[in-house]
Amino acid sequence: MSQPPAGPHHPAGALAGALATLAGTPDDNVGIDAQLVLIVRLAADLVEPVSYASVTAEGAGPPTTVAASSQLALDVDAAQYADSSGPCLDALRDAKAVEVPDIGAVMAWPQFRDVAWNLGLRASLSIPLFAGSGVPVAALNLYAHDPEPMTELTRHVRALYDGEPGDHGHETRPGCAQLLAGIATALHTRDLIQQAIGVVMARDHVAADTAYLTLRVRAAEIGKSLPDVAVEVTRPPA
Amino acid sequence: MDKQPLDPTEAFAALGRVKLSETDLNGVLMKVAELAQRTIPGAEEVSVTLVRGGQAHTAAYTGAVALRLDEWQYELGRGPCIDAAEGGVVVSVPDTSKDGRWPSWAAAAYAEGVQSSLSIGLPIQDAVIGALNIYGTKPDAFDVDGVTLAQTFAGYASVAMANAHLYDTTATLANHMQSAMESRAVIEQAKGIVMGQRRCTADEAFAILVKVSQDTNRKLRDVAAALVDNVRREP
After folding, report:
1. Closest residue, chain A, to B200 (C-alpha)
2. How far is A41 from chain B (nearest CA, A)?
3. Where are the alpha helices (DSSP H) in chain B?
4. B179-233: CATH, from 1.10.10.60, 1.10.10.10, 2.40.100.10, 2.160.20.10
5. How confident is the model over A93-97, as a mean pLDDT?
């Protein structure tokens, strides 16, 4: 696959930038699908332990694969949709990173296990991706032939989603470091927006979804990004 | 029980020290009743009426006479404390020997040695209304200062009820929370709510949430969820 065009500028690289950008993009932005496609390409190309990548999204309809780096990834996703169960669906619905360190040992998702195993996959990791509202818009599925190199990456991703400080700075593989930096920035952006949602909830006495819309409208009105508006709203009065 | 007269300043300081985490709503209301009895000149007995879903009951009382006079009103379905609770107003019965509004209740009060009463409706909030009732043995027992003091005690009772409601919400939410948001996002929202209310930084807001979590022995996530839910329901 050819190298994708340079993504959003991020000191840690294009993949990190794409993940960070998504977290600050309003959910209804038409560019979201293109961002997901970019993330899949970059993840498959850059993250060393990953053999194939895909993105599962679930809008109003049933879950679908928005982008995949290969037919093989599509097949593994489709097996999960057919069974209405699998790590990618759990990641999406529970907003948690779902790791499968040994696909052969899976009990909970037989369809996923059989299809993935027969295609030579041995480990997987599904990561929830958030847009501006903070609920998952997609799950990034990383499939690997070789389980061992995935172990370390998985541990770091889990630590990030668990809110532990972690030691992902010690990740020396550049692609893995980018993925982790991107997730860390995305989570930080989401935290900031959620805080801003809380400030608006307290100010306007409204539910979280209404508060999010208030921020989103404000961003559109003044032509700033959602994270910029969140910074403005959460700044304590001088 | 200490029945020595008490200076209002000391009484309100004592109320300020009551921790909801160490008692329940009835415990707080009992404290309010006791302190009101010791502080308001002419107050012989004090009680607190709460009305939930149309059902009135006495949540706290300093003596049996107050309880009987409250319950007699609940049986009749009318009386000064019920009117005070429903209207959120002050209802005074300066002389039970000649009250024409609730003659049978007034006669019962007179027979019990209660010649005047003062009922302060608690500020109305949510589903629960109530009144602070003060009974005196002499006619015209309560002057303007007494009414003002009683209103302040009623305000404390009301704040305690609001807090208790928040705590109850927290407890039930822990079991019923069904949210698309996982813990981390909910905690960030709660931080934002505290930041908005207290005008503090995110770190300070987090410290406040942790403190509440520790003081109430509840999970941080549950404290945050209750806060988020409460903002939504209580404009």
Report:
1. A236
2. 28
3. 8-16, 25-39, 64-76, 80-87, 103-111, 144-176, 183-198, 202-216, 220-233
4. 1.10.10.10
5. 87
Q: B216: distance to nearest CA of chain A, Å?
A: 22
pLDDT at A114 over 50: yes
Q: Is A93's pLDDT higher than 80?
A: yes
The ranges assigned to domains in chain B are 8-172, 179-233
Q: Best of A137, A195, A210 to disrupt the B interface by mutation (most B CBs within 10 Å)?
A: A195
CB contact under 8 Å between B232 and A94, yes or no, is no
Look at residue B161 and tell me whether its pLDDT is greater than 80.
Answer: no
Q: Is the pLDDT of residue B83 over 80?
A: yes
Q: Is the pLDDT of residue B167 over 70?
A: no
User: Smallest Cβ distance to B196: which of A187, A190, A202?
Assistant: A202
Count H helices and E strands in chain A, helices first: 9, 5
Q: B176 CA to chain A: closest CA distance, Å?
A: 17
Q: What is the pTM of this model?
A: 0.61
pLDDT tier at A94, thresholds 50, 70, 90: confident
Cβ neighbours of A234 in B, within 8 Å? 192, 195, 202
Contact between A215 and A230 under an 8 Å Cβ cutoff? The reply is yes
The Cα A77–Cα A112 span in angstroms is 8
CATH number of B8-172: 3.30.450.40, 3.50.50.60, 3.90.640.10, 3.40.50.720?
3.30.450.40
- Across the interface, whether the CB atoms of B197 and A198 are under 8 A apart is answered no
Measured in angstroms, the CA of B194 and the nearest CA of chain A are apart by 7
Which of A134, A190, A202 faces B193 most closely, judged by CB atoms?
A202
Cα–Cα distance, A161 to A70 (Å, whole number)? 27
pLDDT of A4: 38
The complex's ipTM?
A: 0.84
Q: CA-to-CA distance for A60 and A130, rounded, in angstroms? A: 16
